[in-house]
Amino acid sequence: MSGASAATTPVPTTAPGAPRPSRVGPAGIATMAGSGLSNQTGAAIGSLAFPVIGPVGVVAVRQYVAAAVLFAVGRPRLREFTWRQWWPVLLLAVVFGTMNLSLYTAIDHIGLGLAVTLEFLGPLSIALAATRRRVDACCALIALAGVVTLMRPRPSADYLGMALGLLAAACWASYILLNRTVGRRLPGAQGSAAAAGVSALMFLPVGIVVAARHPPTLSAAACAVAAGVLSSAVPYLADLFTLRKVPAPAFGLFMSVNPVLAAVVGWIGLGQRLGWAEWAGIGAVVVANALSILTARD
User: Fold this and answer.
1) What gap in Å lies between CA 234 and CA 220, rounded to an integer?
2) pLDDT per residue over 120-177, tens digit each?
3) Which of 55, 59, 127, 183 is 20 to 30 A from residue 111's alpha carbon, by CA?
């Protein structure tokens, strides 16, 4: 989930035939808030290990943690998978790893708040592309204005970091589409678990090389593991509970606050202060997503 957002782990769905929740209770609000804060706090803590093992090392550890959690929850029956089921799983694994690596590298370049905001354009683009309403065209223009504000030319602009944030957005959009395909072809969380396992295997040699060249300190290793737990395990399990208690539109609306949470956590926890223009850009992206959800028809 979203990204360092909740989007960096698969969003669980309610079981077919299960009654849909009709309102948001205190427990649901608390769980959604806890999930979002856990996600962004995990990313912030993981960034503390960048000077020792770099974003690649942190992402490798995060992939291992995500695989362990999803395998325990999904229990995939790998031997029973057909090629028709395997190929989207393999693509999902590549996208999963690339999404997290590009996001964490973007965080290293441009900070947590801006990186998560740019990544959030992925699911927003998917949502806006699925409809032809005038209000969604307005939402797209609002989001575009926010992006232009964030990426405006200035002496301190880090265009590599911005490009990596946009790559993470493209990966998140691909991740959503592939997850739909995997979900149709495999029951439960088996597909997501298998993809996380394959992604972890892909990062295994990467982790070994990083550890050999840049031996991690105890604190760096602890930060990387904390990032995996707080940004993968906790959000996934929290969202699994939340979607049983909270209507899907309300869940999506709260997810749109993640860029703001990321900016606040980056400001308080990492000292990454943003100017008024950056806050305006983040606000525009959040408003575009919120407006699209609030005006959506069932």
Assistant:
1) 20
2) 888 888 877 767 778 878 888 888 888 888 888 787 789 999 999 999 999 988 988 8
3) 127
